[in-house]
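Worked example (supplementary).
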Amino acid sequence: MTELLQYEFMRNALWACLLISINCGIIGTLVVVNRLVFLSGGIAHASYGGVGVALFCGLPPQLGAAGCAIAASMAMGMISLHAKHRSDTIIGVVWATGMAAGIVLVDLTPGYHVDLMSYLFGSILMVPGYMLWLMAGLDVFVVAWAFLFYRQIQAMSYDEEHAQVMGVPVQGLYFALLGLTALSVVMVIQAVGLILVIALLTVPAVIAEDFSRSLRAMMCWAVLLSMVFTMVGLVVSYFFDLTAGATIVLVAAAVFFIFRIILGMYKGWRARQ
Amino acid sequence: MENPLVAVHGVHFAYNSQPVLEDVHLQIRRGDFLAVLGPNGGGKTTLLKLILGILRPQKGTIRVFGLTPGKAARYVGYVPQHTNVHEVFPITVADVVCLGLLPHRSWWRGFIRSDEAAVRQALERVGMWKHRHQRIGRLSGGQRQRVLIARALVNEPELLFLDEPTASVDRQFQSEFYDLLKTLNASMTIAVVSHDLSVLSSHAKSVACVNKTLFYHDAAELTQGMLESTYHCPVELVTHGPLPHRVLKDHPCRHD
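After joint prediction of all chains, the assembly is encoded as:
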């Protein structure tokens, strides 16, 4: 095990796991309880359009991805406010358009460019040092936001209309949540890629939901679970020479299914008592 | 005359150009106990949501305590239909009731000791104090409804809105509940939305019938005309006298 820590890329990857998990646990919890899972998927895929734009214009791809993710999240947020019944269709359209635009723009960019695969499946072993600082910065921001607005966030997530009647600025909070989700998605893409980002946002939160008595507890458990999944997945992928992102997601999924089966058996046993 | 707490003037509202409310006028005076009746889909809940500021009217004005709807949060309590609430949401009974205290807190502050006392009082009023540490999803529909009523009362509102409050409550609590409302009515103004006429036989002081348009009656009785134009069919009549009594129409309901 200690040999792992001798490599700088491995130390960086482990740090990235911890930093990503803090974000994943908090934002993932809110994504799950506010039913934004599909919207997050839309953000993740649309952000690839931003990667294409950035490469085409010679900008850093992360910047393009973040900008595009935020724009897509705001657009989808507006649409879900004004045309609730059509929102899933429109998210699907934005999802596909962003992705397609990204691929075509990368095609149009002359010369050699970073491969699509690292965006699709993540490249946690290639996280540069400065990226860790950006991740830490976003973590601090998300933690502070969730802490300061906890009551309002709780009120909105539990019963949006009642929160509105109680004078909570629901719309502002909703768009803040979408913006932070967009940034988190771009950050998590580093680890597991845009195809698997949904799994890392939702699986720890869904497991935590079952035994948490408050939103705060759910967030803390989700952070913890996410840390375990990402680190275990990373180490397993190293020893068996597998793709890190996919291994992380499989570890999370395995725990999820085992947990569900045990929970189901326990409930059945309780019912028979 | 004192200004009404709620003044609705010439309000129109439509969902996707499908008119739901047309030219609605309504005033709710201090101390009133208003029953808002009407068939399902007649616009009762929409009217309530307009007054609460959840929806905005396409035409007309609404004032609540002289303010635009939504600005009077600290004077208003709201018990929604329990259907729009998450079943698995991780929150305890006590924390749900705490949400009713939000208008009294600056946004960054936590809750304090006097809040605990307020939460306790509200939960005891509906007989749910012993369940305070339970997760809300573990409760039965009726128990959950009681918790939502406690959430509205914890705020000590001057104006209490209830949307189908007894829909999922057992019979026994239903009569207890109307007695509770009567006690509350001594210190607060109450508006109950219901498709169930039994609210009238309890303690309502005035009635509004809503079915796209609104008929207001300044006493807890319905006239034949109000009912027929609201429900489009003859309905049993309920009136208050020395003895509460019901007058039933003797011919069968006609559907048109």
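Two points are worth noting when inspecting this output. Chain A has a mean pLDDT of 90. The domain at 2-272 of chain A is CATH 1.10.3470.10 (ABC transporter involved in vitamin B12 uptake, BtuC).
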